[in-house]
Write a structure and sequence with these properties.
Elements: H1 2-27, H2 36-40, E1 48-52, H3 62-77, E2 80-84, H4 92-101, E3 106-109, H5 115-124, E4 129-133, E5 143-148, H6 150-164, E6 169-174, H7 179-195, E7 200-205, H8 212-224, E8 229-233, H9 238-248, E9 251-256, E10 267-273, H10 275-287, E11 295-298, E12 305-307, H11 320-335, H12 340-343
Parallel strand pairs: 1-2, 1-3, 3-4, 4-5, 5-11, 6-7, 6-8, 8-9, 9-10
Antiparallel strand pairs: 10-12
């Protein structure tokens, strides 16, 4: 009898200990709604991000920059990511409104062309933070503009082009006349003139972000006029400008993304918009509840515009003295000694 009682007591104690361990483990699980242990390990909140881009997410340019950046930060946050690509202007309202009505916390529209539609939709969904790349407007509490140094980028690109030009004639070809590309063009002209006030700068818009053939034709026209170094800001169509330079054996300065990948013997350096850093920062602010309808501006001083290395194929074509001057100008802008925005008159 004593032996049976001992076994019963031993079993009861073991069950009690197991129950105690189980309770302790349950209390420390983040999914528990209450209890001191649950409060010390907060659950990762559900967070949904929608990305809308004008091009494709594999265009090696503007749209892919945004996708790669948003994908990286969403993975890091454990957030849900959905995206819409090649969005036509007639669909802006429907797509923006669709994501907001599905409870997305952030709707990130990659381009100023989405601004007007997003402003209207944002007013109907105050709980969703709308972020517009290259946006110059904001409305509290949830319509945010976001810019990554269009003028800084253009200024540095134009300056580099003029530094390596042998004719003193440089050119830049843009896609459509939207704010970020207009700013890039203003910066390009100011940067080129900063290096050579007597130089000639030609800029033009093709009216398309996808028509590479049209951009290539425009590049050939500039080359015929004596331009010997070009750059471009035209999304997918940028490849046409690069191809024209490659066929004519001319140098090209990449812009927005690392365009050396298209023709490293031609695109000897790129002035990159560091969307990975900039977009990651603003989405984290939204995640942490730190956005409230404002315009964020990031440029060279903030580390959002970077220079790539020189391509191996074109490295020898650039004199060491010129390379040193390029780095010196970049450092002067980073320190505030040179102000591209002021020099571009904007």
């Amino acid at each position: 009898m004593k032996k049976v009682l001992a076994i019963v007591m031993s079993t009861a104690m073991s069950l009690s200990l197991l129950a105690g361990c189980g309770a302790s483990k349950a209390e420390s699980t983040p999914s528990q709604p209450s209890g001191s242990a649950a409060e010390s390990v907060p659950a990762k909140k559900e967070f949904k991000i929608a990305l809308i881009v004008p091009g494709t997410v594999n265009d090696q340019d503007w749209s892919q920059l945004a996708y790669d950046a948003v994908k990286s930060v969403s993975d890091d946050l454990g957030a849900t990511l959905n995206y819409s690509e090649k969005v036509a202007s007639s669909d802006y309202d429907q797509i923006l409104r669709g994501y907001a009505s599905q409870g997305y916390n952030v709707v990130f529209a990659h381009g100023n062309e989405f601004s007007d539609a997003a402003k209207i939709v944002a007013a109907d969904f105050p709980e969703t933070q709308f972020i517009i790349t290259s946006g110059a407007e904001s409305v509290k509490p949830n319509f945010n503009g976001f810019q990554v140094g269009g003028i800084d980028s253009g200024f540095m690109t134009g300056a580099i082009a003029m530094m390596v030009s042998e004719t003193g004639k440089v050119g830049a070809i843009g896609g459509v006349e939207m704010l970020p590309i207009i700013q890039f063009m203003k910066g390009f002209e100011a940067g080129a003139k900063y290096i050579n006030p007597e130089g000639e700068v030609t800029t033009m818009f093709t009216g398309s972000l996808e028509d590479a053939a049209k951009a290539k034709e425009a590049a050939f026209a500039m080359i015929e006029s004596g331009v010997d170094v070009l750059s471009q800001n035209a999304n997918t169509a940028s490849q046409g400008v690069i191809m024209a330079c490659q066929e004519k054996g001319l140098l090209n300065v990449g812009a927005v993304s690392d365009q050396r990948v298209f023709a490293p013997d031609t695109v000897f350096i790129s002035v990159n918009s560091d969307m990975m850093t900039a977009i990651g920062a603003i989405i984290r602010q939204a995640y942490n509840g730190q956005l409230s309808g404002e315009v964020k501006n990031l440029g060279i001083k903030e580390g959002a515009i970077l220079l790539t290395d020189y391509s191996e194929e074109a490295f020898a074509r650039i004199p060491d003295e010129t390379k040193a001057k390029i780095q010196e100008l970049y450092d002067q802008i980073a320190s505030g000694e040179v102000d591209p925005v002021a020099l571009a008159g904007n």
